[in-house]
Each structure stands twice: as C-alpha cells, then as structure tokens.
TrEMBL record:
Keywords assigned: DNA-binding, Transcription, Transcription regulation
One Pfam family hit: HTH_18
UniProt signal peptide: none
Protein name: AraC-type DNA-binding protein
GO MF: DNA-binding transcription factor activity; sequence-specific DNA binding
Annotated region (Disordered), positions in chain: 1-32
Keyword presence, Transport: no
SMART domains given in the database record: HTH_ARAC
Presence of keyword Transcription regulation: yes
Coiled coil: none
Length: 186
C-alpha cells in the first residue's frame, strides 16, 4: 500500500497512497482511479446541489472511506466538499435571483436551504450583499447580451460534412474521369 497503489478488499472501501509524508503525496499527485471516483461525487453534487450531501454519502458514492474522501477531495479540488457545495448553491441562487422573478424564499428552498434566515446570512457572508440587494442591483443594471465570438457563429453555421473534403474531391474527380473516358470510347 505504501507504493501509491489503490487497494480494495471486500470488507473495506478503496484506500490509497498509504501514510507517506504529505510532501510526497503532493508531488506525486493523486492516482487517476481516485480522481475518477472524486469526480463522480463532485458531478453528483453538481447535478443535485439542492440535496443534502454529507461526507458519508459522498464517500459511499465515490467508494472510499469518509476520512480518505474528505482529505482527497480537498487535495484534488482545493476546497472541502461542504465549501464546494456551498459555492454551487450560492452560484445557483445568484442565477435564479438574476434571471427569474421567483420569491427569495422559493429560491432558498430550490437551492437546498432549509431556512430562509440561514440562506440570507450565508448569502450575505459569501457575496457581501443580501439576496434582495443583489436582485435589485442586477435588475437596475439590466442585462445586455454580450456579442458572440465569431468562431462560435461560424461553428454554428458550419455545413454538416459527413465526408472529408479531400475524399469528396477525389470522388468528384473519379466521377468526372469516368464520364470523359466514356465519351472518348464512344
């Protein structure tokens, strides 16, 4: 286990990298198998950020022990799982405040908060303004759509080519050659 390999036994979840020194782990990085497992849990949080995601549930999703999950998640993504989830919830709430006319209470519940007071306090701590202040500021500023980059426009209007251009030219050349050859033979 000290060689950095991940191991699993029927009675224990995935563990990895042993108890080597922390500097060695940071220099080596995390094994791809562990990163895939962490990404699976992160993707689940992204898809359902309104749900409760305690570390034991996340550890089950990723198939690693709770302590190993919490430590590895922070090492891989730079923040603990709870802070990541909090960030996703605040981002979603900001988008709903900006883009909809839903009541703030409804937005709080849709984004996973059980209490309007906790939502408002946390929102203010993170953003520096209350949900109502953010909504008023965003509505006053109005949203003008930014211009779409030319590369996106050209990609959207790109023809649907099923055959490579060179292959198409070769087919056209073969078709025209056989036609002219037929004329000469006749």
């Amino acid at each position: 286990m000290g060689d950095g390999a991940l191991t699993r036994t029927p009675d224990r979840p995935l563990t990895g990298m042993g108890r080597g020194n922390k500097r060695g782990r940071e220099r080596i990085g995390q094994p791809p198998e562990l990163l895939r497992r962490l990404l699976r849990a992160k993707d689940r949080m992204d898809a359902a950020s309104h749900e409760e995601w305690p570390v034991p549930r996340l550890a089950r999703v990723s198939g690693v022990s709770e302590a190993h999950f919490a430590r590895s998640f922070k090492e891989a993504f730079g923040v603990p799982p709870h802070r990541y989830l909090l960030t996703r919830r605040i981002e979603r709430a900001k988008a709903l405040l900006r883009d909809t006319d839903l009541p703030i209470t409804e937005i709080a519940f849709q984004t996973g908060w059980n209490s309007l007071g906790t939502f408002g306090r946390t929102f203010r701590d993170v953003t520096g303004e209350s949900p109502g202040e953010l909504r008023a500021r965003e509505k006053a500023a109005g949203h003008q759509l930014e211009p779409v980059p030319a590369c996106f426009l050209s990609a959207a209007h790109r023809p649907d080519l099923k055959t490579a251009v060179l292959e198409k030219r070769r087919q056209d050349a073969d078709g025209s050659m056989s036609g002219s050859q037929q004329m000469e033979v006749s």
